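Thread: "does anyone have the structure for this chain?"

Original post by V.I.:
We have the sequence but no experimental structure in hand. Need at least a predicted one for the grant figures.
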Amino acid sequence: MLVNTSHNSHTRFRAMHLPPTLLRAVAAVLYVAILVVSALPGEDLAGLTEPLAIVGHAGAYATLAALLRLSTGAGGGLWVVSTIAIAAVLNEVEQALVPGRSADVFDIGIDLLGGLLGVAAAGALQRGRGAS
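Reply from O.Q.:
Generated one for you, tokens below.
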């Protein structure tokens, strides 16, 4: 969210600081949503194309990683990437138990790539606002 920090004709914006607890709560809700979608039987996802699935995986895990990274402050990147790796593996294990679904190592890779992008984006945002 952006907040106007200038009272003159030159409009300047800064990223709004959100409480870490709120960021973690939103991350938890997002992960539950990922697990719910992953529990859908294969026939319910028959119309989903491979490119859309890849974007969905990467986008969901990038968002999850960014939320976690922003909630940790400086230096939380390794913890977040490790958490994303564990979450991605658990998600694929869950999918292996769902009728019409299967575990896929490629999906874990896409999830990790999304996670790395999310960590990098959140780190850049934190550096930009002086949190390093």
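V.I.: this helps a lot. The mean pLDDT is 84.
O.Q.: and Strands lie at 2-4, 13-15.
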